[in-house]
Every structure is written in C-alpha cells, then in structure tokens.
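Module 6 notes. Inverse folding takes a fixed backbone as the condition and produces residue identities as the prediction. Think of it as a translation problem where the source language is geometry and the target language is the twenty amino acids. Below is one complete input and output pair. Work through it position by position during the lab.
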C-alpha cells in the first residue's frame, strides 16, 4: 500500500483506528452539507462497512487517511476514484474532518500530494473533482492546488429540499508539469 508524505501531511492507508473519527465525520451535519451527496447520518455498521471497503486494495480507487506529519493525528481522508487507466483519468475527493484544521492549508497540501502521485506514479493525464457552490473553502483549495473550473452543473444536487450547483474542476498533466518548472 502506498504512503505519500509532504512537509505537513502524510497520506496512508486507513486502519481500523480510523473508525471513531470517520464515524464522527460521517455524522457531522456541517461536514455532510459541504461534502456529501446524502444528508443521512451513518449508523455504526454502515461506517464500519465503509471503512472495511476503504482498507481493501482496488484497481480503480485508492483511499488515503490524511494525518498531520508532526503529530500523526488523523485529520481527514482523500481518494483517487474512478481511475480509468485506458483514458488516464480519475476523480479526486477530500474531507478534512477535524474542523480546527479548516482553512490552514492541510487540504491543499494533501491534494498536491495525491495529484503528484496520480501524475508521476499512476501515469494519469487528468484529475477532476466536483465541489458544491456552497463550499467556497473547497473552491479555494482546488484553485490553490492548480485546478481550473470547467463550468457549472446547474442545480445538480438536492440538499435539504434545495437544489445546489456543482462546479467541475480539473487539472491536466501538462498544467501540473508547467507549474512544477
């Protein structure tokens, strides 16, 4: 299993010790509002099954637990999903679950680590992500990591009885290479 390291974050496979925090995050209304298609809380058994699935290796998805490098504290999770080797693309998703770390650059650093891995090790050409229009912190995070907005998916998701727009973002290998020069 792959471990990715940067100055402030370490991305590594989940372990059973991820359960308590993951369960808390999957039941936090504010986190669900910003990051999940569903507002339904996650019973313990559902969170357990999710974590078990995330701990298994797969050809088309890589799950990472995000830890602070200095304290080893689990602060979030990230995945490279829907990996299509034929088309050299995937989708990125990320949650910083520990709210005291919101807005401090941990998400951006984790995204950069995952993007570097996707382009340099997985041979991808395109990494995309979608963010809700109601989540300006995630918009800023993706843009700081080099992603470009590609449009608006108008009224794409129904949240608490209201339709919300989604913004599709992507980063191409050539843009990543250019930024590294």
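Target side of the pair, the amino acids:
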């Amino acid at each position: 299993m792959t471990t990715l390291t940067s100055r402030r974050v370490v991305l590594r496979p989940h372990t059973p010790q991820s359960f308590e925090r993951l369960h808390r995050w999957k039941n936090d209304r504010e986190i669900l509002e910003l990051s999940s298609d569903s507002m339904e809380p996650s019973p313990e058994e559902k969170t357990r099954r999710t974590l078990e699935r995330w701990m298994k290796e797969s050809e088309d998805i890589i799950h990472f637990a995000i830890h602070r490098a200095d304290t080893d504290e689990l602060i979030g999770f990230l995945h490279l999903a829907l990996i299509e080797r034929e088309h050299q693309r995937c989708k990125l998703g990320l949650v910083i679950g520990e709210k005291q770390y919101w807005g401090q650059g941990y998400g951006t650093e984790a995204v950069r680590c995952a993007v570097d891995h996707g382009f340099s090790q997985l041979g991808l050409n395109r990494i995309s992500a979608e963010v809700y229009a109601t989540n300006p912190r995630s918009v800023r995070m993706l843009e700081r990591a080099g992603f470009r907005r590609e449009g608006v998916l108008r009224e794409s998701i129904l949240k608490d009885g209201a339709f919300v727009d989604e913004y599709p973002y992507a980063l191409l290998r050539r843009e990543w290479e250019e930024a590294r020069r």
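Reference fact for the lab report: The first helix runs from residue 19 to 25.
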